[in-house]
Amino acid sequence: MRNQSPFHTQIPDYQPITDQTPPAPRKEHDGAAISLGRLDAFFDIYIERDIAAGGEFLLIIVWVIILTSIFLCTVLTESTAQELIDHLVIKLRLVRQLRPKAYEEIFAGDPIWATLCIGGARYTGGGHLVTKTSWRFLQSLVNLGPAPEPNFTVLWDVHVLPHGFRRKCAAVSVNTCSIQYINDHLMRAAYRTDDYGVSCCVSGMVILI
């Protein structure tokens, strides 16, 4: 099963097995870099479904006070969806690896190069792959401020990406200096697919499970 397009409408009822790398395995991985894949495409399907459902997603907080459990339930809204993305980014920023002193002197901020790709265009059929969650990830840099992780990478194609999204990327780049850009047109041609990710800075890879 391949990572689905952000416009894929058949959503499985089971808990999906994703090719993306969650924070826990990422913390245990001691390599120099890893690709987070296309989380904006993958997460967006489920976030938009739950917002449209008006309450399927429940945030449950359990307080146990003298054998009493209190459940606080919150429907998923745009505000809480943004909060979820912000929390994911915070978790990625908490990852720290033990490094030699010489390494720390070269690279400031304890980078682990967990690269997150957003945007891009379709390999066939035309059109872009920007989702609402692509915007949410950009907004997380505004909400939380700049940091080395995750390594935000915009898959750039000036002829396909929406004008508003390109302007947002430029504004966030100017204000945070936390975005890198990859030529999506060349990468799609090289891999013959739009289903690819980037590890570290520029190491492309096809995403499969």
Key terms for this structure?
alpha/beta; 8 strands; 209 residues; 18% strand
Characterise this structure:
- The protein has 209 residues and is α/β, with parallel strands linked by helices.
- It has one domain (23-206).
- It is built from 7 helices and 8 strands, in the order αβαββααβαβαβαββ.
- The protein has helices at 23-28, 39-53, 78-93, 101-106, 132-144, 163-176, 184-191; strands at 34-37, 61-64, 69-72, 114-119, 151-156, 179-183, 196-199, 203-206.
- The strands form 3 sheets. Strands 1-4-5-6 form a 4-stranded parallel β-sheet. The chain has a two-stranded antiparallel ribbon with strand order 2-3.
- A hairpin with a 3-residue loop joins strand 7 and strand 8.
- The longest helix has 16 residues, at 78-93.
- The protein is globular and about 50 Å long.
Rg computed from alpha carbons, rounded to a whole number of angstroms: 18 Å
Helix content range: 25-40%
| Low-pLDDT residue spans | 1-22, 56-73
Largest sheet: 4 strands, parallel
Number of helices: 7
Order of helices and strands: HEHEEHHEHEHEHEE
Total strands: the figure is 8
* General form: globular
